Amino acid sequence: MRLPKFKTPSCYIDAKVLKDNAIRHVSAQQEINRRALKSISQNTTLPMKQRIQAHLQLTSMPVFSNIHAAKPRCVETGRSKGIIKEFKLCRVSTTEAKTKGLSEE
């Protein structure tokens, strides 16, 4: 699948960072449609045929339209593991920032 062109991030740039940014862009565009189809397919008051059609449309959507395909990444290093959400940094970058902050005092 070919990813669309988008605005490049202002952090560390890597192929994986660009892919995650593209996934976020596509999922933001498809979010309303995905939520509507999901609510239709889970609504038990609707006829079964309509629910199945909504579910088939949902499964035929591109894989990159799901926000869960994107991983949170460190803005300094681009790592995807050990991310602290409040700072958007990985644990390695936060320890380096702590040591720099302590040495400057």
Automatic annotation (TrEMBL):
Membrane-spanning residues: none
Gene3D superfamilies in the cross-refs: 1.10.287.1480
Keyword Ribosomal protein: yes
GO molecular function terms attached to this record: structural constituent of ribosome
One matching Pfam family: Ribosomal_S14
GO biological process: translation
Residues spanning the signal sequence: none
InterPro entries recorded: Ribosomal_uS14 (IPR001209)
GO cellular component term, pick one: mitochondrial small ribosomal subunit
Keywords: Ribonucleoprotein, Ribosomal protein
Record bears the keyword Ribonucleoprotein: yes
Protein family (similarity comment): Belongs to the universal ribosomal protein uS14 family.
Protein name: 37S ribosomal protein MRP2, mitochondrial
Organism the protein comes from: Yarrowia lipolytica (strain CLIB 122 / E 150)
Lineage of source species: Eukaryota, Fungi, Dikarya, Ascomycota, Saccharomycotina
